[in-house]
Amino acid sequence: MGIGGNVSAQALLEHEVITLHHWLTPGQMADLMAFCRVLPGGTGVNTATLASALAASSQFGFWGTLSASVVSLIGLAIPSTIWTAFYTTLQQKEEYKRFFDCAMVVLRPLVPGLIAAAAILLIRTDTFGSPSVDMWEVGISAFLFIATLIGVGYYRINSLFMIILCGLAGCLLL
Hints:
- With 174 residues, the chain is an all-alpha fold.
- The protein has 8 helices and no strands.
- The longest helix is centred in the middle third of the chain and has 49 residues, at 43-91.
- The relative contact order is 0.10.
């Protein structure tokens, strides 16, 4: 989580929320991820807080929802805080610095894999459509996905602007 950041948090949250506990459906989680990406702050923190609120809201009312959100926020923040304090303390000592540099050389190539895994997790029939149901919807979704990759990656267009453009294009074309 310290290396992959929000992307690794997304994979962890999807595994916990959808696969293990069945608190949310894949469609709800995809909508939640899209919503959390446009909110200020970290995606992992936003997703954890809102996923716990959605999971608890139907059963526990307002105070249960608020409590679940606070507990999930603390549960996500404490390990990162402990790791950061531990890492900072050890990195200040010269004898451990070369071990961290070596670990970073090994771990950096894993980050594109985490990003690709998160993208693959979001490619489902409820987010991209199904070719057997509506080929137009799948084509538009694939086009918008590729256009966003090119726009953000190659042309360095602001990701929030690309989200707005894709939303408008999706509304007009679908």
